[in-house]
Amino acid sequence: MGFLRFSILCFLWLTVPLGAMATSGTGFRCIMYFTGQHPIAPPIDQLHHVTHVAVAFMSPGLFNEPGRTDWPLFTTVDELRAKFAKGTKIMIAIGGWGDTVGFSVAARTDKARKAFAENVAAMVRATGADGIDVDWEYPGGNGEDYKQVPNSAKAWEITAYPLLLEELRAALGPDKVISAAVPGLKRDMLAFTHEMMPRIMHHLDFLNVMTYDLMNRRDTVTKHHTGVELSLEALDAYIAAGVAPQKLNLGFAFYVKYFRTEREACEQSASPIGCPTLLLEDPDTGADLGRSGAFSWHDPVPEELAESFQRALNQGTYDDKGGGYYFWDSIEDIWWTFDTADAIRRKFPSILSQRRLGGVFAWGLGEDAPLFEHLAALNDGLEKYHEVRDEL
């Protein structure tokens, strides 16, 4: 999922698969991704909304190996169960940004899809997990290797993707949870068309729409990486493609992003929103040119950014139109975009209530350590949202 896809996912409608098809219920579910980079959980009383945890990641390539019996992970399902309330379901997330080759190999043929799914089912049995999250970024192209492998060479994946999900559901059965992380930018929704969505959703319990990284190094002007307006555009695209809103989950980002900008153009612009960035990636290879980046709340602030980031914290503002907290540092020519606790709370009336979505998720639990201020804001938003729903 872009920046370290080890995330907290909090969903507001319980979805339970019936037969070969997953259908929505009306309960509450909160799923947390637990990360190898930040394997930290707060005291259990701060996790009272959590009903599911997704531990990330296992590489998809593991499941293409015949006869494999070991499933490497930085923790165990049993260890995770001890960190959360009794009854919390534990899922295994497969894939992540840049780890797509294994999915492509698996999806290529009927035989490969079946073998992959059978191995996934064996892993679930061996680990004692309650389900999986499929994090293929992205079927059809526009992944990390989009400059090396053109989208035209991956077009076949668009029809193969639901076939792979079909085999996974068949192998895992109706009682296991299967979710998928899906892109938040329209340009990346190559496989998530009106034609394909019914076939995809026939096998999934819900979609985790990555409504963050909505600005990344492929962009050339500044915008909110997890803004309200752009998030609504993403969600509406899936709804237009036929997905029930109750099966869509809104993404929150528990991390900070920054981008280097063009000083003169930004100074002349009426607003720093929409002003030009420097060239952020190599136009031939797609390689990162080191002019943008991200770090979680648990990470140390890079020394060379410390003063600028402090200005962003002290002087940043909320954009009521686009819906996002930002700061343009005119001293060092840096665009900062991230969710504050206040920005997180604002999304419940402006997005969740407006679209009556199935839930929310954030990226990621340990990434918000040690203060867990953004998790607290997410909890506040959930509680107030439930109060409003209960009054209706």
Which short descriptors sum up this protein?
29% helix; single chain; TIM Barrel; 2 domains; 392 residues; 16 strands; alpha/beta; five-stranded antiparallel β-sheet; 10 helices
Question: What report would you give on this structure?
Answer:
About 50% of the residues are buried. The N terminus is likely disordered. The protein folds into two domains: about 300 residues, TIM Barrel (Alpha-Beta Barrel), CATH 3.20.20.80; about 80 residues, no CATH class. The chain has ten helices and 16 strands. The two termini are about 35 Å apart. It has a nine-stranded mixed barrel with strand order 1-4-5-6-7-8-9-10-16. Strands 12-11-15-14-13 form a five-stranded antiparallel beta sheet, with helices on one face. The protein is of the alpha/beta class.
Structural class based on helices, strands and sheet pairing: alpha/beta
Q: Report the sheet-strand fraction.
A: 15-25%
* Strand line-up in the sheet with most strands: 1-4-5-6-7-8-9-10-16
Biggest sheet: strands, sense, closure? 9 strands, mixed, barrel
What spatial form do the alpha-carbon principal axes imply? globular
Query: What's the number of helices?
Result: 10
| Distance between the ends | 35 Å
* Count of discrete structural domains: 2
Name of the CATH class of the largest domain: Alpha Beta
Order of helices and strands: EEEEEHEHHEHEHEHEEHEHEEEHEH
CATH superfamily of the largest domain: Glycosidases
CATH architecture of the largest domain: Alpha-Beta Barrel
Low-confidence stretches: 3-26
Question: Which percent range fits the helix content?
Answer: 25-40%
What would the CATH topology of the largest domain be? TIM Barrel
Mean pLDDT over all positions:
91
Number of strands: 16
Report Rg.
20 Å
